[in-house]
């Protein structure tokens, strides 16, 4: 490139070329590793320019300039460490420290406080002011954020975040001059699923982590990079651990400058609390009797299954061992469970929800990359079908909000009435709306045709009903969309893995009658399907249970007997074995995100007495091979459809998937609707219901339901959203 065509500026007499225009001075200098101190500037928020700490000197200018509010111009000569700049920084810090309390030894921000560091680097050791320091009453912002407002320096980062990112207009500046302070205009909590981010962006100790106040210091912590499992994107986060045994906080990766990964939700921040819950199992149990020896435990499991299997075999009863999968299962564990199902005729793998793999979603999956490759910024319309993006995926909702703020973007929703914090047009919540659109009798037809690069996003809630959804695919084919415009949003990492690896059948009453035992993997027993079975038994339905000798292996972090006595009573389960395995933060495993990226979790803390579920099942697999009849499994080119889950990963599960080639690509030459091109004669009438109404405890996140902080947040959120007032 010819340097004559490039713009140039000088920083401390160093000549630098640049191409991008309309960028602020501080943005360019930070990218060039020139350190400019600042408090109010944030690359993902609007410019405030009120801290005045980022002053620089412009040649031939009588006064210093604010680098966060000024843009670079050609042949500009600036100085970042001149005597004028140094003196200005000393004066600014002197003003900021005028009313700041002298409580650094007891401040939770100590060791990572920007004001503390910059006062040491750029400040002076003397002050010219002698006056009483003012005090401000602390605000109650909820169970997550602790406030010490006397420390506030009025950088307004929290206000701008609340207005621009969280879209909750609760925070603002009250008063004028010496009496100004930051708070809520009326006494209320900061009710947002992203409220914890103001802790990270606060440059001083005014906003800190309330649940973990006075717990740790920054220099005592070790930070380890891992992934977020609370949604299907698996964003990278940093976990801070103390003494290699306790997680104290989760925060976003600030080195990643993408909008959609810079912030994290409160569920991501505090769901780790469940693994330190008093309810968590640390030893395996057999009918509430603790077992410390793994060999003895495997012997008991094998004895129970061997006895039951041969007893049924002699009576010619075709009953099976049902493996029911729940949440937060890795690729390795899912693969070996599918392998067990193929190898042994008496084992079946089920899910509590209908799998979507039978609709050929693999084609949608590889291009399911909404936040990066689908050019959301160039789109003018998005249609959300059965999705509450605010609760199902907060990061996606932020992305949609920022696209809407740029203008020329319409959001249409086919769902129950929801609050996305973004203006949108609600079309209908009835399935008959698809028929109207197909017939050309709806205004959305013209909107879709006229829109530039329209996007359609839908999720699993469409498939919870037992109905034929060919009309839905014909609806999409009607407008002949490019396949890149069609996206399927998974609600969790395990849902992504299931929909990609194999077609896993839904557990039904028929399967329940034909079973002699259960394996539950991270199953939530508050699931509506399991409760429905209990209700049918209570109502004396026609379910005839002949086999009284049922056993249950509960692969879970919490004791089965705590709240499931009705489950045992009505399912005639005599033996319950609680197997405590390693949690998400205690093992290194692989997960598939909804963006077709395989990400690896990190082993953050170590529990010597716990094993990963994958290793436990692997050991049972070895025992089965010695005592049970099995099919011979051969992997060859003529059995690709039978073992598609292994071919997709091009790997046989032995240890882990970290050092192997993980992608098995598929041709997309054929149209995705070729198998579903059928005419519709009848459309079932049903409503798309809002399946997720509680962000903090709802959804498919297995761990958040045992988090003390998230339970408190859920209580306050429900009090706000109810039509009744409770007297406590």
TrEMBL record:
Cofactor: [2Fe-2S] cluster; [4Fe-4S] cluster
GO CC list: membrane
Chain coiled-coil ranges: none
Any one Gene Ontology molecular-function term assigned to this protein's record: oxidoreductase activity
Swiss-Prot/TrEMBL GO biological process terms: ATP synthesis coupled electron transport
SMART domains: NADH-G_4Fe-4S_3
CDD domains per record: fer2
Keywords: 4Fe-4S, Iron, Iron-sulfur, Metal-binding, Mitochondrion, NAD, Translocase
Span of domain 4Fe-4S His(Cys)3-ligated-type: 84-123
SUPFAM superfamilies the UniProt entry points to: 2Fe-2S ferredoxin-like (SSF54292), 4Fe-4S ferredoxins (SSF54862), Formate dehydrogenase/DMSO reductase, domains 1-3 (SSF53706)
Entry's family note: Belongs to the complex I 75 kDa subunit family.
Protein name: NADH dehydrogenase subunit 11
Organism: Melosira undulata
Recorded name of the encoding gene: nad11
